[in-house]
Amino acid sequence: MGETVDHLLFACDFSQAVMLGILRAVKLPLPRTSWRQWMVRVTRGKTSLGEFVYFLWQQRNCRVFHIQNATPAEVSSKVLNFMKLSNL
User: Fold this and answer.
1) pLDDT confidence of 73, banded at 50, 70, 90?
2) Considering the chain, what is the average pLDDT of its residues?
3) Does pLDDT of 46 surpass 60?
4) DSSP string covering 3-21, please?
5) 3-class DSSP state for residue 72?
6) Coil, strand, or helix at residue 62?
7) What is the largest CA-CA distance in the chain?
8) How far is CA 83 from CA 7, 44, 46, 53, in A?
9) Which residues contact 18 (CB under 8 A, 6 or more apart)?
10) CB-based contacts of 24-27 (< 8 A; 24+ apart in sequence)
């Protein structure tokens, strides 16, 4: 699949694994609809979507430019730690 916003944020196995790790950690329900609809509804008015996108994009660049790769659990942890620091 080509690299698109939809793929990077909603269809990519890696991003889905990151999101599942975050959901489990904060005890939010798993999506019953599409990832896109669920994310818009759950993150409305919060900056957590921004952190999710930022850390995913950072990891995407690391992979593209052959810099150290992180696991989905490591990226989830980075997002969660940032959210704690930001009191989100």
Assistant:
1) very high
2) 77
3) no
4) --HHIIIII-HHHHHHHHH
5) helix
6) helix
7) 36
8) 24, 15, 10, 13
9) 52, 55, 56, 72, 75, 76, 79
10) 25/76, 25/80, 26/80
User: Tokens at residue 65, please?
Assistant: 């430019």
For residue 13, is pLDDT > 60? yes
Which two structure tokens, joined as six digits, stand for 60? 């995407």
What pLDDT band is residue 36 in, cutting at 50, 70 and 90?
low
Q: Give the C-alpha separation, 66 to 41, whole Å.
A: 34
- Tokens 């999710």 locate to 52
Reading the block at residue 85, the tokens are 């620091």
Distances (CA, A) of 19 to 42, 63, 86: 12, 18, 18
Output Rg (C-alpha) for the chain, integer angstroms. 13
pLDDT digits (tens, 9 = 90+) for 48-68: 667 778 888 888 888 888 888
